[in-house]
Amino acid sequence: MTELAITWSVLLSQVMLGLAMACALYRIARGPRAQDRILALDTLYINAMLMLLSFGIRSANTIYFETALIIALIGFVSSIAFAKFLMRGEVIE
After folding, report:
1. Cα-atom radius of gyration of the chain, to the nearest Å?
2. At a CB cut-off of 8 Å and minimum separation 6, what does 67 contact?
3. Where does the sequence pass through the membrane (predicted)?
4. Best CA proximity match to 86, nearest among 32, 19, 38
5. 61-86: b or e for each residue (b if 16 or more CB lie within 10 Å)?
6. What's the CA gap between 41 and 85, in Å, rounded?
7. What pTM does this model have?
8. Backbone region of residue 49 per phi and psi (left: phi > 0; alpha: psi in -120 to 50; beta: other values)
9. Residue 92 above 80 pLDDT?
10. What single string gives the DSSP state of each residue in 30-72?
11. How many helices (H) and strands (E) does the chain have?
């Protein structure tokens, strides 16, 4: 019974993460300002990372966890670069 509950809960979390990713894509496409689009992009990479983690839990494969770690690192660096670009107009000083 517990294995079935875990399977259904992971499936439900994947559906909810898919909906969250769709909302973030909508905000990227229709965001009124650049700051809204960058926050939506930040949300999108976090949701993608969590989706990969849920795929890793479901398939019991460690490659998904390593890929999620790489996405987290690249997403963090890109968020900092975008924020710096919006504040100063240049990324490299």
Report:
1. 16
2. 52
3. 6-26, 38-57, 63-87
4. 38
5. eeebeebbeebbeebeeebeebeeee
6. 15
7. 0.84
8. alpha
9. no
10. H-SSHHHHHHHHHHHHHHHHHHHHHHHHHHT-THHHHHHHHHH
11. 3, 0
